[in-house]
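One such given next:

>
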Amino acid sequence: MTSQWTLQDAKNKFSAVVLAAQEGTPQVVTKRGVPAVVVVSADSYRELTRIENADMDFISFLMSMPTEETSHSSEEIPCGSDALSLREIQF
């Protein structure tokens, strides 16, 4: 659950804002009643920006799908799932 702070309260209790964010609860800071910023943990921030900074474009992402040879590996298939069955597509 996200907590919300006014800017003045966030300044006065910044340690509490940081501690709550480090424990995994994003902290919304409002300015004049409007959400202005969100304080999150460094781990959460890295996870959020990791996806944005990926060096792979969308086509490369789609083309990185496992091939038929690798799709039958039991390590890649979640428990209870059937093996992937790929089909040929003509362009």
Observations:
- The beta strands are 3-6, 27-31, 34-39.
- The domain at 1-66 is CATH 3.40.1620.10 (YefM-like fold).
